[in-house]
Amino acid sequence: MGALFLPLAVAIAFEGAAVNTDIASSFDAHEVDHVGSETCGECHRKQHRSFAKTFHGRMTREASEETVLGDFDDAELLYGGVTARMHRGPEGQFRITFAGPGATGRRTVEVVRTVGSHRYQQYLAEEDGVFARLPVAWYPREDRWFHMNGAFLTPDPPPPSPGGTISEEDYNRHVVRWNDNCIFCHNVGANPGRVGERFESEVAELGVACEACHGPGGRHMSARRDPVRSLALHFADDDGTIVNPEDLSPSRSADICGRCHGQRIADDVQGFMEEGDPFVPGEDLALYTAPLFRDTTISGNEGVFAMRFWGDGTPRLTAYAYQGLLASPCAQRGELTCITCHGMHEGRPAGQLRPEARGDGACIDCHEDLGLDSAVEAHTHHAVSSSGSRCVSCHMPPIVYGLIGAHISHRIENPDPAAAEAVERPDACTLCHVERTRGWAIDEVARLWGDGDVADAAAERMDTTGMMGDDEAAPLSEVLRALFGGDPIERSVAAEALGAPRRAATEATRAARLGALFDVMANDPYPAVRRIAWRAARTVCNTAATSEVHRLPRLPDAAWMRYRPASAREQRDAAIESLLAALPPDTTTPPDPEVIAPLRAAASETAIHIGE
Q1: Collapsing DSSP states into helix, strand and coil, what is residue 552?
Q2: pLDDT tens digits, 380-404
Q3: Nearest CA to 153 among 530, 453, 468?
């Protein structure tokens, strides 16, 4: 046996050396074919099963009974005088018919593809090779249809005249061409294939699949199907036929995610449109594109992207998570990368956090001195079991808008309300202490982490309604000031903060929160902001009781679902009145109109292009 094994071992060793030499000298991933995730799954069964559970794996799919989540059983959505009816064709096709009053302007399209399955599901129709995102979408968490004008940060269009409709331009405001937009990030090997005014678009695979992160698998498959070469690669230090993000440097690993989770501009836009994105995993993303920042110019024009960032350059939209990472000291001076916290084959699909990264795990892995409860409390000045002692709460606060909600920032930084005040952005302290002013937060940070000489006067000036009497120019808490006087992102972040699952200190503070949220549900000009406020109000009403605050009666879902954020004003008012009538008296304390009127008058109503 030994005599037979030795020649085989020598052959494998020589073959392994030959394989590695061959790869090093001639391997160009741009020339390698994609093979598709089903082929990958033939060998990598466990990884294939785990990835299939993720929302990435279900990003873009052909419309079918399995993939379509929306109700197509003659469901209807009225918006702007136009009725969208979702129904089935004679052979089971998924169809949407749009018609104005009296069936005017009737038009029927067939849904051929779906995009998304988590926050909401969008639908594509196709004509002459051009795929278009339709103006209505399905919201799984609410189990109902909504108009896409309610997903983006744009105000309500002018209301239709009696018996009329809003303009076609306003109704189709967010109908976009998939071929040269969504195609890049929601699929593998995307090529718009623009030929003049036409598109001959192709993808290696619909959706985000194995080769989006590991690169084209053709060479890997060929090598692994050769028994000797496969065995040689098994014993080799590195399988150079495929990319494993775990084996890359932190920067190159982050580039794989940053390709889609960081808006960027191509060096050769025409080349991208005609031949696709040339980037392959393992390369430097900067070879082909540059990430967008606050000061990025387009054709010499400055400030084009300024609204997508806070004044200090921190991203304020989810499409810029990569830029947040690049601005983080943990990445600049450490080895933090996306997969430090996230894993495509582990953790729950929502967030895809590695089990060891949940809670404070990822941070403690480097900051070992904070591994003990006593050290945490000394560091945070909060109870170790409270949200104030969670790393993310203070160092990655939810100041980023996207997908109809506020999300954590991916720029890791120290909480500094004074610095936040200087650049007019939210701060971590008042997003948690929602009844407090910015001045209080600045005082507290100085007292707890500074020289300790600042008196805690703000706490003495706090009354039970959340109104602050310390400053004539800022009579509201910081969150309420932003809720009524901020731009659309500030208002969204503030509404989300008011609905965070934390208990109100008193029934009076809860009443103030609900009063503010119901006011936004009625009066904010942005349907997306109204939806977040509605969701927050529902959470506050359902929050568990404490010794100081009794629990409100749980209203049936149907009562809450009567409210539609994008519906006409009179319909919203009727739904709100119905909700208030079902709640006990004095449940809400409306904000003082004289206080909020000047704030709302000065609030920005600029539409913010969020790039989703």
Answers
A1: coil
A2: 999 999 999 999 999 999 999 999 9
A3: 530
